[in-house]
Records
---
Amino acid sequence: GPKVLQIPSHQIIDMGQMVTLNCDPVSNHLYFYWYKQILGQQMEFLVNFYNGKVMEKSKLFKDQFSVERPDGSYFTLKIQPTALEDSAVYFCASSHRDRERLFFGHGTKLSVL
Amino acid sequence: QQQVRQSPQSLTVWEGGTTVLTCSYEDSTFNYFPWYQQFPGEGPALLISILSVSDKKEDGRFTTFFNKREKKLSLHIIDSQPGDSATYFCAASYTNAYKVIFGKGTHLHVLP
């Protein structure tokens, strides 16, 4: 079936550094999402991106976070600067229509030291 | 504030048994309720979903029930298999929403 690819699978960085998480969504999908999961628990919504714009974001999407998808390339989540509490698994998802079946990647485990 | 609540947090059943997972929600504007299944090391995958205009949807061994008056849902898995061992998330959304809100998940273990 359709696949979402996330790169890298694991990223270790020092607190205060910048990190960029990359996502290659399903090719004909129009809606892109980032979710945060800690210790295999709840999937926390971060942000939705559609037509080049952030459509909705949660309180977890701090000012240090930004998303973009320049020229249909990777959909990225950038955190600058990182904090210890940003350690989590970040899942990218895409869908053809809003809230319709979300296809998730395997996640990027971010470890902030 | 937890918008989607799931129970139990963890559940163990024997192979061949019936698994019942429950979910409740607060926001009356929610009208779309998907269930996602997640295996370790993977992202969640849509298992089954239901709209608020229906009270039941079935897909093979999986059935979801919806009770609008009580704001509750359930997922039933008949003839549970060890391969069903995973985390199950109840989720909710509404028309024109740009997000799907997930519950905390139920860890299911099916013993052979």
---
Amino acid sequence: SQKIEQNSEALNIQEGKTATLTCNYTNYSPAYLQWYRQDPGRGPVFLLLIRENEKEKRKERLKVTFDTTLKQSLFHITASQPADSATYLCALDAAGGSYIPTFGRGTSLIVHP
Amino acid sequence: EAGVAQSPRYKIIEKRQSVAFWCNPISGHATLYWYQQILGQGPKLLIQFQNNGVVDDSQLPKDRFSAERLKGVDSTLKIQPAKLEDSAVYLCASSLGGVEETQYFGPGTRLLVL
């Protein structure tokens, strides 16, 4: 069956370090992958989209990689700040190209001052 | 630009009661989504509308959940009757309607079924 895996354990890092979050998937052939940020009590907010033919995408302090061979995406936040503390969700379009998004459970990031 | 509006923000009901949630998407967005997010999990798509037609409702428990999008704008999601396991946050999102479209989420309705 199709599965999206994100580390359920919170990632704790020190301010200024680079945070790296992982999204693994099985039994998908996604056309694209998206990363969202979710703060407590709020809906997810879109951050970045990367297509299957792209290896890397950057936006300010954010970087996403997409390895379709490993079936993995890495999400990096450089020079992390306490304000980056949140849950980060990855989402893929459902197999078959129907473009119906499926979300992972998210990984909580805690940046300590 | 106004965001996606949802109401109510919180709802507490007894099991077997009925409840309805309302969503007003961003103006001009053709696609509207309803998600269920149980604590500690990612959002699960319940139903997706393109204008006022249903694109996908394969994960909607149709024996108790229903949704409609009249005139291709606002949408309501209803649960009748509610069960304890329906306790969750119900998120509404909208997008312009093409493929790869960014979704804009509302703040969600937090439902507690006692």
